[in-house]
Each structure stands twice: as structure tokens, then as C-alpha cells.
TrEMBL record:
Catalysed conversion reaction: 6-carboxy-5,6,7,8-tetrahydropterin + H(+) = 7-carboxy-7-carbaguanine + NH4(+)
Cofactor(s) of this protein: S-adenosyl-L-methionine; [4Fe-4S] cluster; Mg(2+)
Cofactor binding note: Binds 1 S-adenosyl-L-methionine per subunit. Binds 1 [4Fe-4S] cluster. The cluster is coordinated with 3 cysteines and an exchangeable S-adenosyl-L-methionine.
Oligomer status and interactors: Homodimer.
Keywords: 4Fe-4S, Iron, Iron-sulfur, Lyase, Magnesium, Metal-binding, Queuosine biosynthesis, S-adenosyl-L-methionine
Binding residue positions for substrate: L19, Q20, G21, R34, T95
Similarity-based family: Belongs to the radical SAM superfamily. 7-carboxy-7-deazaguanine synthase family.
Domain of life: Bacteria
Signal peptide interval: none
Protein name: 7-carboxy-7-deazaguanine synthase
Ligand binding (S-adenosyl-L-methionine): W44, C45, D46, G97, S146, P147, K148
Amino acid sequence: MPLILATTTPGEPEIFASLQGEGASMGRPSTFVRLSRCNLACQWCDTAYTWRFEGDNRPHSDDVAFERKANQLTLEEADVAARVAALHPDRLVLTGGEPLLQGPALARLVTELDALRPGMHVEVETNGSVAPHAALDPMIHQFNVSPKLAHSGNPADLALIPQRLAAWSADPRAFFKFVIAAPEDLQEVLALQQTYAIPGERIFLMPEGRSSEVVRQRSAWLADLCLDNALRFTDRLHIHLWGDTRGT
């Protein structure tokens, strides 16, 4: 089955080169492939066009339903690999939506890409609730895991799956990125850190926000929380540089 991708404009897949804006690889030139579809529904999601299609009533703060045909397309793995290989960065970031829903197809993509551009560093951005497919897992150099806290609007039994959190904590390739909207969100993070023995050096706190103004405002107090709890801070670099836009 081919890959199901998001679009930048109707008919154009969201495959682009940019600087990684968040987490452990922030600032690194990377090529992004944005997959469509997600098993969760964050009410502040900044890529709702990957999942909230017409007829989907899952809640979102914007309450916008996207037309599927204009915002989703399919491409063969070889086509996607060729497009990635043609761009300059030597790092690939598979993002979404939830990319691990398409594990077998992603394994075929990385195999195709390795024949064209051997040795590329491959990262996956995931909400942490889906296990990597057995064929894909050994191909990934880094997992950027963003478990969804209560303020996301997702039920904990869907978003915070104990066996998955334990597995990510035990995997040194996995860095955790928690979206923080208010200071009280920190207590959830600390409880998860303790329960699953997640090393603080692999936990990033990131301000929730789709504008540079909001991100900066929340960064002011979030930086202090990181300092006080020996956790890492991550900005949203792409929001400051290009705003909340596709293909950046």
C-alpha cells in the first residue's frame, strides 16, 4: 500500500527541507515528510489538516473540518524516496499526523531511500501510543516522542499506554517532548517521569502555541520550570521564523 501524505496545496505532497524546529535536533537542516492520519485528536493540534476531515467530529479549538481530497494524497514509496533524495539535507524526519500508523510503508520508503542516499539519519516524530513496526524499528536513529497530557483533550487510556511509555523510556533513541500550556501541566510530566523512570536529560518541555507571541510568553515561565526540575527546554523555532504555515 502506498504512503498517505499530507499536502501543502492540493495535489502537492508535504515534503520539504527546513530547519528542525523542536526537540533534540532543533536547528539542524532536515527533510520532512508529513504523513496524513492520526489516532489521537489534540484540541490545539497545529496540523489538524492531517486528520480532521469532513465528518470527523473529534474536538479541535478551531472547529474546522478539512476536505480530504485537497489535504491528503497517496504516493508510492519510490516516488517519495526520490523526492527526499533530491533535497540537500542528510537528515529525514518522518512526521504527521501519526507516522507510525504507516510503519510497513515507511520501512519500504527508508529501504528505497538508502539505495539512493546511503547513510541518512532518520527520525520519527510520534505521539508515543503506537509501536514501531518490526521492519521499521531498526532503521530509525531517533524517536521524538510527544505523549499527550490531559490538556490535549485525549483520554489517558488512548494517549498514555503504559507498555509503550515503558518501552520508549527503555530505548536510548527516544527523546520525550511534552507540550506545556500551563504551569500545572508539569505535575503530569513529573508523575510520568517517576512512573517510567525517564531520564531528565531525555525530557524536553515545549510551550504550546501557534504564534511567536504566545510561544515567547509561555517560554518565560517554562524556562524556570525546566531549571527547577532539571529538564530540557525546547523552543518552536519554525514558528518564530515562518509562523504557523505548511511546508516549514
